[in-house]
Design a protein that fits this description.
Layout lengths: L13 H16 L27 H5 L8 E12 L12 E15 L4 E14 L7 E14 L5 E14 L5 E19 L2 E15 L5 E13 L4 E14 L5 E14 L4 E14 L6 E15 L1
């Protein structure tokens, strides 16, 4: 989702850098919604004991007697990145504003099968290199099947459509259809602590085809309720990524730390740090990047 190449010293194509940033950071920057099971990295709160009267996020996330089916969400954040073009050397830093918004809904088909639908958009505006402003459009549908006989492990299948537009001309420069399969397990460690882990594989159909990439990997995370209003999450994701055109193969690592302070039941302040390390068989695509941000998240259920 971030900036593209800005000088002749950047060896990769501009679209490559922009697309890679969108794949890596945009999902993390999206605000959390009530319909979260379509997100492979979201904790499965059903694993928490329904009789647990704990404080913090687990208390807040317990299913109420009447579940509101729709969730409108929005986020406005300011970010800093020390490697805006994801380059191996000659790195450049920048700050940018990210505004995301959308609507999601969740429906239980059976006691163990759930359907999630999400539509969202994003606007990304940069300080030093405004010519690389970016707009995004995302649509997603997901099915999650909970298996009570296998320790409440969940299987999920999702389809996502992504469209990237030039922020200045509104011309489309990348389109992607993503198909994901995975398995996830959440374990409640204590009244205020839970652990989530899973594995997934993703196949993509992209335009232009030269940027088409498939991947497989795993993730793990810890969610902690520090107080009734302050929540912390630490997540790690590994992905083996391979381009269907050419010989490029990557080992990608993404570490995320976030703190969220709940102001009201619909508004929160969130701070996030993302550290990405990419190891590629083509040296020009090996990089590390740090992204830090602070913003406001809003969710209204209806």
């Amino acid at each position: 989702m971030c900036l593209v190449l800005i000088a002749w010293s950047f060896a990769a194509d501009p679209a490559v850098s922009s697309v890679e940033q969108a794949r890596e950071f945009a999902p993390a920057i999206q605000p959390a919604t009530n319909a979260s099971s379509a997100d492979a990295g979201a904790p499965d709160v059903s694993a928490v004991d329904a009789d647990d009267d704990s404080f913090g996020s687990q208390q807040i996330l317990k299913a109420p007697e009447r579940v509101l089916p729709f969730d409108a969400f929005a986020s406005v954040s300011a970010f800093f990145t020390d490697n805006v073009a994801l380059t191996h050397k000659d790195t450049h830093s920048d700050t940018f504003l990210a505004a995301t918004f959308g609507l999601s809904t969740s429906r239980k088909i059976t006691d163990t099968l759930e359907l999630d639908l999400t539509s969202s958009g994003g606007l990304y505006r940069y300080s030093r290199f405004s010519e690389f402003n970016l707009d995004t459009l995302d649509l997603g549908v997901g099915l999650t099947y909970r298996m009570p006989k296998l320790w409440d492990t969940s299987l999920f299948a999702t389809y996502g459509f992504s469209d990237l537009l030039n922020g200045r001309s509104s011309n489309e420069f990348f389109e992607n259809h993503a198909f994901t399969l995975g398995v996830q397990k959440t374990v409640g460690i204590s009244r205020a602590l839970s652990v989530v882990s899973g594995v997934s594989a993703q196949a993509n159909i992209s335009d232009p085809e030269d940027l088409q990439e498939d991947s497989a990997g795993g993730y793990a995370g810890i969610a902690a309720a520090i107080s009734r209003r302050l929540h912390a999450d630490l997540d790690y994701r590994y992905a083996w990524q391979f381009y269907t055109k050419g010989t490029r193969r990557d080992n990608n690592h993404l570490l995320t730390l976030s703190l969220q302070y709940t102001v009201t039941n619909w508004l929160s302040i969130a701070g996030s740090t993302y550290l990405s390390v990419n190891e590629s068989n083509e040296e020009v695509y090996s990089y590390d990047a740090l992204v830090e941000g602070l913003g406001l998240d809003a969710n209204i259920a209806f």
